[in-house]
User: What shape does this take?
Amino acid sequence: MSFEPKIIAFLCNWCSYRGADLAGTSRMKCAPNVRPIRVMCSGRVEPLLILKAFEAGADGVLILGCHPGDCHYLEGNYKTLRRVDLLKKMLSQLGIEDERLRLEWVSASEGERFVSITDKMTEQVRKLGPFPRRNGGNNG
Amino acid sequence: MAKLKVALYWAASCGGCEIAQLAIGDKLLKLAEAADIVFWPVAIDAKYKDVEAMPDKSIDACLFNGAIRNSEQEHMAKMLREKSKIMIAYGSCAYEGCIPGLANLFNRQMIFERVYIETQSTDNKNNILPQTSCQVPEGELTLPEFYDTVKTLRQTVDVDYVIPGCPPEEKTTWLALEALIEGKLPPKGTVISHNAKAVCDDCPLKRDVKKIKKIYRNFNIIPEPEICLLEQGLLCQGIATRGGCGAPCPQANMPCTGCYGPVEGVIDQGAHFLSALASVIDSNDPEEIQRIIDDIPDPVGSFYRYSLPDSLLRGAIIR
Assistant: This one.
């Protein structure tokens, strides 16, 4: 059986979640691998939640927020941008592939963009395989 | 009242925790009044077989320092757990893995090759690496097995209390020992320190607005006295680190490196600090953000200096 990745997607309540909703109500086809979690702002997604998702079995984590300048809370998405940039640098030191974590901007009117991002990410993570676990050797 | 029986042991550690235990000074006499030390390899000539011969739970408290990185340490941790009523992780290595835990960026093979073959001062033409057993004319010689991954004490045995710090401050050590002597230990699982809030709560430096345009390493600048070091662009981890130490490092112009572990309720100190640091970077321009981040050469070593084995990912993936 081919590997089906589990992707946790944190969606901003004000834009991306509605974008995903639009994709649904417009009956667009979309990879079923994404497990959406609605948050009030992409700025709510602290790095701890991303690591926790990986630790709990996610193969990829997708964060979708409002386009720069459009944040309902003015600056939340910029904070996310900085956090994800820094986290990506740290994850590369830990041997985690860059494609497993992705931050994109999707507005409430961009149902198609939501579909193309989730489809592309699913494809990329499927190629990478399951999230790697540290080989603990004889002591686990 | 019968005297308490106390054991102290060291595993993967540097010896600093023993110095910290001795640093309580004349309080050692108070400890000696209340307790017999039955096992303490650094100071007392008791052997492993003496511990083995003790009945289960006959030791009242064991202060265990050091991480678990080989089979001997794991064996001793399990044995001392059996023999002790209370198991205390003493110091950052036992608590979170600490500096030895940074070895989790590598595996056994990489560490052996570096240490026994590549280092400039090594003369090992036959590439001999440590073996768990070796035959010599006199018989078999054995060494403990070196593990791929460093573990914390809590990942190895059940731990009752933690005394944080690299090494723990004298007052933190005594806070725990006094509670032990007086029979007033807090609920199981407590990380014993004077302050469950962040180091900033102990720190007298002046805090204003946290917005940084450039990150400096310690040798890049001489910080202004009396002003928050993080606001000056130094990676001071006080905001994500448990207090109780009294913030001696920031007061000596050295940024906090995080040795007391995460604040109460946080499970991953490095991610917590990363989040806070990214929030105070003063830029919304992707290229500028990247430039600022480029000034942090080693995020894992900076954010998880003391806690890589205890972090959510526990170490690097080696392929």
Notes: Chain B touches chain A at residues 68, 71, 74, 104-105, 107-108, 145, 147-149, 151, 266-268, 270-272, 274-275, 277-279, 281, 283-284, 286, 289-290, 293, 296, 298-300, 303, 311-319 (CB under 8 Å). The two ends of chain B are 58 Å apart (CA to CA).
